[in-house]
Design goal:
0% strand; mainly alpha
Length: 371
Amino acid sequence: MVLAAACALVLGYRLFLCWQSPIETSDLVRNLGYSSHLAALGPDIYGTTAARFRPEAWTEFWSEQGYLYPPVALVFFAGFSSLGLGIFWVKLTLTLLDVAVAWLIGRHTSAWIGLLVLGAPMAAWYTSHEGQFESLVAFFLAVAVASQMSQRWLMSGLAFVLAIQTKQLAVFLAPWLLWELWKAQRSADNGPRFGAPILRFGAGLVLGLLPFASFYIRHPEIPFLPLQNQDLSYNPFAWNPTDPGHFGWHPTWLTYWDVVGTTLLLAIGVVALVRSLPDRTWHRALPLTLFVGAIKSLSWAQFWYTALTPALVFPLRQRRMLTALALVIYFLHDGRSLTLLAGMRYGPSEREQTVRMFERCRLTCHVQEER
């Protein structure tokens, strides 16, 4: 009863956040704007910048930059822009994907751990309020993990390749997934189903890649597009909190909060890896450890990148205490989302005029309209 009430409260609050207009980022409207031209341009959309579509209102955001995300993300947003659906429906869908991730993790660990995932401030703010789409990536990753657990290798391969084609950071699940595939293949070689795991996984990869092959044929640079931003210097999770080069406008307390929080998260991964050496299950800690280490090492990163953490903790599920501890730290690791949810307003935000445009775009949104 207590658990059900807590879940209902968290979900109700996140639905309330879906109704609010983004105030910190414009990425959601930009994604809708770009994707609205997908039917007309197809793969050639990757050869454009936002400025090409002026005077459409969304083009004021990062107007000289092209579309950086892989084609699954583009198709996802096109589903909404083609129907004229507004930002509420996108955020609602992304929030429901977070519910699915929480359910999958909770089903294989505990319901309270699932609630921890669902209620995490990082996801509540940046998914339900701001409309960042990490929950779509996390959903595919969680499905890949859950499918591996039941030896459904075709679905695991399909979900994994869709995750990578949504955001490239999904690649950090690969070491664990390939190790598990290798073990399953060794077992199959000694049984009647010779070759089944690797063939099924490969078939899943092919099924997930084929619909988007034309994008990569026309623009083979797509997987590397996010590297363009690595020429910039901003990372709220960077290693050294005394180096102002990465933290821009941050107050000192926020810098230390996020740097220490992600360092603790990395420490959990390292501890899990070391403790797993005797039973040779250390590969289960690789997704979390490699992911957090990479995020802290990037020249350019954003707060919401770490919203993938629950899906990358999922392979650690057999070590229940370490899984729970990692997700408690994830819940608390970001001071920005916690304080924004508490009502504090500081740092960069969108102009009032822009927020009003978001409000007009709440339920229906014809993003190709002019300013």
